[in-house]
Amino acid sequence: MLLAHMVTEATHTVTQSGIGLGSAIAVVCSWQRNRSILWAILAGVLTWFYVIYFAMTRTPGELS
Q1: 11-63, pLDDT tens digit by residue?
Q2: Which residues contact residue 15 at a Cβ distance below 8 angstroms, ignoring those fewer than 6 apart?
Q3: Nearest alpha carbon to residue 53 among 21, 18, 33
Q4: Which residues of 21-30 are buried (b: 16+ CB within 10 A; e: fewer)?
């Protein structure tokens, strides 16, 4: 029971500090495609919506 409490507390702390996984992926994808800080910030706000959009619209050069 103590271990479950410690894991829950650690997970809660990690999720409250920093950006989420979707935001990080979106920012990296946006930067790779656009090389623009403004577009990267917008993608970070849109998170998983931008990641899905990027996956559906990527070009052959972006497949690797």
Answers
A1: 555 555 678 899 999 999 999 999 999 999 999 999 999 999 999 998 888 77
A2: none
A3: 33
A4: ebbebbbebb
Question: How many residues are recorded in the chain?
Answer: 64
Q: Give Cα separations from 9 to 1, 13, 17, 18, 26 (angstroms).
A: 12, 6, 13, 16, 27
- The structural domains of the chain, with segments of one domain joined by +, span 19-58
Determine the distance from the C-alpha atom of residue 14 to the mean position of all C-alpha atoms in its chain, rounded to a whole number: 15
Amino acid at 57: T
pLDDT of residue 5: 55
pTM: 0.68
